[in-house]
Amino acid sequence: MSTRNSDTASGGFTRFIPFVGERETASEFLSAPVAWLAFFLALPMGMMTAYSFLQVQNYEVVWKPTFQNYQTLLTSDIFRTYFFNTIEISVAVTILAILLGYPLAYAIAYKAKNPELWLLLVLGPFFTVYLIRAFSWMTVLGRNGAINIILLRTGLIEEPIGWLLFGKFAVIVGLVHAFLPYFVLTLYATLGGLNRDELEAARDLGASPIRAFWDVTLPQSLPGVITGSLFVFIPSFGAYVTPLILGGGTVPMLAPLLDQFMQLTLNVSKAAAGGIIMLVVVVVATTLIFRIVHLEELFSGQTEGGGGS
């Protein structure tokens, strides 16, 4: 019987950073980069927050505090339509990432003979510029794209399918392709930290592979599923390039809308207010998630009240 003991919280973290010495804690190692990121994140965020409470008159920012920007957005039917459509697309992308990513991460962690090679293939899209990846889907989904050509030549359709490109379907496909690796890598890290003794014990007690998966593997892998879902939902929620290219500007999403505030109406303050609203959604979602899943649980593969590893 093979064994894999779980690491402690710090051990589970430093297992992925082998050059961290025993006397160095994760917090000491991360203090400098965290401070660096905090400064360069806090400064622009502070400026955006300040602009969101200022007025714009004659296309110029006037330093007079106001809540008008938030009131205008929150009471706007157009903004609410864009907001809920963005939520809908982000949730759809996240669900598809779970359905596609879990079997892939599971196969790499437990079935693959060469998991490093498979992980490299998963990371393959990261070696291509994001813009090029989005454009590449146009050659697949377009009226003269690969899918329509195959369907036409096989006689399954008589004319090209127009809704594959420049619509919600294309945006969802592009976002899943872009952010699926985040989910797979996160879940793979969690699956790699599970205690296989419990899984093999369940098998020894007569549990079928499916029953052992549902009773042992799936509950313990939930931290990775939840955290990976967050890593997919957040960038999908703020996606800009994919809706413009694959959506053709016809799919209502928030990031392109805020760009219109900046470029067309030159209303920097309204765009900043919209950005703050998006940030609040992300912060609330992240806070709720990490009240359930702690960082050490991501690597140790256990949830509160769940089975240990």
What is the topological layout?
Layout lengths: L8 H6 L11 H27 L1 E4 L2 E6 L2 H7 L2 H35 L3 H8 L7 H12 L4 H8 L14 H25 L3 H9 L4 H29 L3 H5 L8 H10 L4 H25 L2 H6 L9
Antiparallel strand pairs: 1-2
Helix pairs in contact: 2-13, 3-13, 4-8, 4-10, 8-10, 9-10, 10-13, 12-13
CATH class group: Mainly Alpha
Helix percent reads 55-70%
Give the total of domains.
1
The arrangement of helices and strands along the chain is HHEEHHHHHHHHHHHH
Shape: globular
- Main β-sheet: number of strands, strand sense, barrel status? 2 strands, antiparallel
Distance between the termini: 16 Å
In the sheet with the most strands, the strands line up as: 1-2
Nearest-angstrom radius of gyration?
A: 23 Å
What is the CATH superfamily label? MetI-like
> Could you give the count of β-strands?
2
Q: In DSSP terms, counting alpha (H) and pi (I) runs of 4 or more, how many helices?
A: 14
Q: How much β-strand is present in the residues?
A: under 5%
The name of the CATH topology is MetI-like fold
Query: What CATH architecture would you give?
Result: Orthogonal Bundle
Query: Which class do the helix and strand fractions yield?
Result: mainly alpha
Averaged pLDDT: 81
- Stretches where pLDDT is under 50 for at least 5 consecutive residues are 1-16, 303-309
